[in-house]
Amino acid sequence: MKSVLAGLLCLLLGSSGAAGAADMLRDEDHELNPRSPDQLLGGDTTLKTADGVEFGVYATGPEDADRGILLIHEWWGLNDHIRAWADRFARLGYRAYAVDLYGGGVATDPDTARSLMKAVNQQEANAKMTAALESLAAPGRKLATIGWCFGGGQSLQASLAAPEVVDATVIYYGPLVADPDVLEKLRGPVLGIFATQDQSISPDKVAAFEQAMQAAGKRLEVHSYDANHAFANPSGQRYDGEAAVAAWEVTRAFLDREL
């Protein structure tokens, strides 16, 4: 079994952003397979926040789609692996944006990834994700967010920052929020994909999130797999194909049902 373990990458990112969590990372097993996916379908473009700050997104899929999805990258940044995920949704008929929260930075080693992640300001990230969602919105189109690890936490943060436009949220082993008062902002249901061997987003943290969502009166669907953190990343060294396929089937069914 291969997979990527981002160690303690995602701990404490939830409601407080990226600052501080990177100090708890371990370097072992933080390796990225440099292989690139097949030719991409979309292209990179630039958007602006409400304050006029430019940022990048990878845009793909039919512009007249009745479903849209915002993808948020792992700690490596907006690389071709995440672009290929966006294309996967495009092939299913989604209009997909993969947002860049690193200002163009992409890491292939843990030290660079850590530096990029530590530099993320949550308020600025929220502004970028909100602007991307607003650009992605269209009459009659339903929207979802999805992210992995760092991006899993950011998927939840995006839905909390712009609940009025998000119909569903997907979190792959990302930092969680355990405050019902914060989670009350959510409008749509949440799907959580987790790993029982994950030492950062542990089963105890998942249970606390479940309790908080219940207290907030919000819909939550949780699926946990006998795998490790980042098991769904085929470009990583701890990829678990069986768990990844099962999680993808659950994700697709959830989004088909909710959007």
Automatic annotation (TrEMBL):
**Keywords, ordered alphabetically:** Signal
Domain of life here? Answer: Bacteria
Annotated signal peptide: 1-21
Q: Name one GO molecular function term.
A: hydrolase activity
* Keyword match Cytoplasm: no
Q: What sections of the protein cross the membrane?
A: none
The record's listing under InterPro entries reads: AB_hydrolase_fold, Dienelactn_hydro, Dienelactone_hydrolase-like
Q: Does the keyword ATP-binding apply?
A: no
Q: Give every Dienelactone hydrolase domain span.
A: 56-257
Name of the protein in question: Carboxymethylenebutenolidase
Originating organism: Thioalbus denitrificans
